Amino acid sequence: MTKILYLHGFASSADSTKAKVLESFVKKNTSSTKILIPNIDNNIKNAYQQIEEIIKAESPSSIIGSSLGGFFGTYFSEKYDLLCVNINPAIPPIDMSEYLGENQNYSTGEKFFIDQDQLDFLALMNKKIKNLKKHKNFLTLIQSGDEVLDYKLAIEYFSASQVEVIFGGNHSFEDFELHIPKIQKFLNMH
Hints:
Layout: E1 2-7, H1 17-29, E2 33-36, H2 44-58, E3 62-66, H3 68-80, E4 83-87, E5 101-104, E6 111-114, H4 116-128, E7 138-143, H5 151-157, E8 162-166, H6 180-187
Parallel strand pairs: 1-2, 1-3, 3-4, 4-7, 7-8
Antiparallel strand pairs: 5-6
């Protein structure tokens, strides 16, 4: 059984559109693949610990990450030598200081706080993956119309890896379902 860990973006949830599309695809088109889609904690340090525990308990062979989930995916892919597909990923050095204070999860409505301690922790993560070492492990899908993240920075960061740029689109990644066959091939999903 192949296990894939899907990591949603900041202030999102396991009910995100991409998560649901992936889950549906895996159920309909694969027989030996299981997709794990947790609700990642809104607190950055707690999210880190949660992802670490899932990886240790479930031993996924790969990660798919979107936005902040892509940043986490990159971090843990490098740490554990896992295949990783990133969709409009946040890349180091990620700066979330604009979220200092109270925030609201777009998907669940839950209110949460980002404090300086979490930002300092994020800064330490940034340093550890400033430069990728395992380039062959990454497939990155980027849409140039991303209104949240600068797609050119992601192209530069992942330049020694497989990168596909789709011109237009947005941060949510329009027509995501059309790109799943590429993900399936890269991750060797059966």
